[in-house]
Amino acid sequence: MHIFGRKKQEHHSELTLVQEQKTKYDFWAVPAKALLIFLLVYGALGGFLSAYEIEYNKGLCMLGVFGLALILSAVYETRRRWLTNLASIVLFGMYLYIAATNYWVINSGYYAILNRINTVARQKLNLVNSTEYVLRIEEQYTTVTVFALFLSMVGVILLNIQLQNKCSLFKILLVTFTPYIIPLYFELSPSLIYLLFLFVGYVAVAVLQGGRAREYLSRQIRYTLPLAALVGVLLVRSVTFLLPETAYNSMVSASAAREASEARVSNLVQFGLMSLFGQGSTGAGISGGRLSRGAAVMPSYETDLIVRYTPYSFAPVYLKAFTGRDYQGMIWTRADDEGADDGRMKDTVESRRQTYAANPDRQGRGVMSVERVGASKLYEYRPYYTGYASYDAVWTKDAVESSAYQYYYYPAVGWVYDSCARDLTADAVDEAYLSVPASCRKAVQRVCNTAEFEGTAEEIAAQITDYFQENYSYTLRPGWYYGSPDYITHFLLESRRGYCSHFASAATMLFRNMGVPARYAEGYAFSYADVVENGILVEGEAYEDYYDGYAPLGKTALVEMEIPDAYAHAWVEIYVENKGWIVVDPTPSSAEENTTSFWDAFLNADGDDSDLDIGENNLGTYLETALGGASVVLLVIVILFAVIFLARRILRWRRERALPEREQVQLEYQRIQRYLAGKSKNYRVLRTLREQLDWIRAHYSLEIAEEQEQALYQAFFAGETACDCGELRRELKRLRTALRWRPLKEKQ
Q1: Are strands 395-397 and 568-576 parallel, antiparallel or unpaired?
Q2: Three-state SS across 685-726?
Q3: Residues 6+ apart with CB under 8 A from 409
Q4: For residue 166, how far is the Cα from the chain centroid?
Q5: Given its phi and psi angles, is residue 323 left (phi above 0), alpha (psi -120 to 50 degrees) or beta?
Q6: CA 241 → CA 230, 236, 238, 248, 513, distances in Å?
Q7: 3 state DSSP class of 393
Q8: Can you list the alpha helix ranges (DSSP code H) found in 604-705?
Q9: 537 Cα distance to chain centroid
């Protein structure tokens, strides 16, 4: 380099690498490094998918992972920084292009994998109140393959960066073994071949990290891989011999930590990291007609009620606690129990009671015990069509101490209007139940006109339910809502997704707009499938003491059910002439109805309960943020950070250009000092410029001439310097680049 300005034409010297240390392109190092990346990435990806028995094109994925790893390794072995940076930019552009052009394919593959995980988690954790993801593209084999390739690109890039900078076993474990945690928690075993891939990769990385090779890392991989393969095979085979799968499963299932974590894991699986902090979420249970602004409903799965009753039909059981009358944007006012509001449905109950008294073969009467455990004390939780008259007296059993209540009730079991029953006409209905407020009237009318609802009240009920099922999505994570526009308007026209309160509120207004008296209701609901799955037979109690009259299921027995807060629900009551108030549940469900025989379910008459359908207990929208939405957010974050990074670099460059030339030289050398201090603890103790330069010569095989050293001394310590500081600064930059690419010859 040109050190002294007055000798520019006479003397030329430069920082050079020692000639005998230069290396040729190592062709064999390229496939060796690519193979190591392949073992780690495909071992993690393939093992995860095999644990869930998800089908995809394994050959194509293997070829894609190894091919990309081979390209990156080949580029890195050139040791040309500009080429490596160019390849990274091109690869990032390809990544964005694939994401943009295959959005729905990738999204559907992602959802297909989540649906499979849903099924396993649903069975293991007994999760409720949720649905399966709808796939835009049904060809799961293709979509999962594309998504696996897309995801493997990220893994290959991360592993290549990690291996070329610093071979850290801990970081590689963090990236590759983390996906195994979920299937292992659910007692799923990945295929042995993928475990073997991973352990061979881990052994190779451990050897490389422990050996602190002086040559290029990729060159050493080809020597360590055969040893790693031998050790990995022996290790995996030893573990499988000493700890068979049956022994492992028994250990996992008996783990107290696992049992204690199930409730938290249930929320984590459904709601992601927000479940750890509760931000933007509300608890389950009765809200008293308040429509939450939170981003999610997060149940704790703690018991709210304990119910004892005799199952009488396949229909769900509703325990009503709150009746909504007037909608006021974010809340429903509570209807009065008596008078025109008729929150107790007095006429309807009386009509059913009269039918039972005259024709018990057409109408049944039951006794239900409801014990309040964790539910709000502000409400009673009554089964539908509970008697209030003196001859249907409601009595309590230690009500003050145990909050246990017993009720007579007349369930809806296919009852039709009986000539001797009380006359039921729409004249008894309060006009408020036909009122649609101006805040949501336009949206309600628009939906009614689009869907073209028509017919009787019950026909309209079926049409509304089908319309929601086909055009709206159920989720416990509807996202934030800030109050503009109106809540029902927002749900009907904008978000088109929500949970039971959203569907019930919107449906109530749709009914009213169609001239059907309707009101909002809240409480708890559980299906016959829930009874089959979670109910417990109560011994020593006579069926006749708890039920009499017509029951579609026939004679059953007394069952006890624990009702968690996740069973809290909202629905609609509509008024039908000659039938009174009846329940309509417009919330979509992806589950098929469970019609297993009562006695087959509880006594296992067929000798096998492995095929019992758990009905509506579907795992919901965990990690509700889809790949598409996440990619948009990720892209925005990347662009934001890129802008900030470039802005800081430009500002720093401008500040440095404004400094005197000597200070620019000092600043460049300080960067070299910081880099070397991070690479070696031995460098940190060096104090003089000569010691530091001698250390660089010895440990990096770099030749630094005496005149170059003198120029640096002048730049730092001389009052005046005759050297060309601009040229010196540029050569220090080249020195810093050479240090980054040269191996450190030192045993720490």
Answers
A1: unpaired
A2: CCCCHHHHHHHHHHHHCEECCHHHHHHHHHHHHCCCCCECHH
A3: 365, 366, 367, 368, 382, 383, 384, 385, 386, 387
A4: 31
A5: beta
A6: 17, 9, 5, 11, 69
A7: coil
A8: 627-657, 661-679, 681-684, 689-700
A9: 36
* Token output for 88: 């990274």
**Which pLDDT score is estimated for 463?**
94
Give yes or no for a contact between 460 and 453, defined as CB atoms under 8 angstroms apart: yes
Are β-strands 296-298 and 281-283 bridged in parallel, bridged antiparallel, or unpaired?
parallel
Report the alpha-carbon distance of residue 434 to residue 436 in Å, rounded: 7
Tell me the residue type at 451: A
Backbone angles phi, psi at 162, to 5 degrees: -65, -40
In whole angstroms, give the CA distance from residue 53 to residue 729: 59
Ranges of H-type helices in 500-626: 500-513, 528-534, 598-603
Q: What angle do CA 691, 695, 699 make, to 5 degrees?
A: 175
Work out the angle between the directed axes of helices 140-165 and 58-77 (0-180°, nearest 10).
Answer: 20
- Beta partners for 498? 474
HSE of 580 in the Cβ direction (CA atoms, 13 Å)? 23
Q: Is 320 helix (H, G, I), strand (E, B) or coil?
A: strand
pLDDT of residue 603: 66
Q: Report which secondary-structure segment, H or E, holds 122.
A: helix 103-125
Structural contact between residues 73 and 37, judged by C-beta atoms closer than 8 angstroms = yes
CA distance 501 to 361: 36
* Amino acid in the structure at residue 203: V
The vertex-608 CA angle with 604 and 613, nearest 5°, equals 85
Q: Is the entire prediction scored with pTM above 0.85? A: no
Q: Are 16 and 708 in contact (CB under 8 A)?
A: no
Provide the pLDDT for residue 14: 44
Which residues sit opposite 397 in a β-bridge? 404
Q: Which two tokens stand for residue 717?
A: 């310590």
Mean pLDDT, contiguous 10-residue spans, the chain (748 residues): 38 40 63 87 90 89 89 79 75 79 84 81 61 71 90 85 74 85 79 84 79 55 72 66 55 50 56 46 68 65 90 92 88 85 84 87 91 87 82 54 79 63 64 90 93 92 93 77 73 86 93 94 91 88 91 91 89 89 85 63 50 32 37 58 73 78 83 82 82 84 78 76 77 81 63
Query: How far is the C-alpha of 413 from the C-alpha of 310, rounded, in Å?
Result: 13
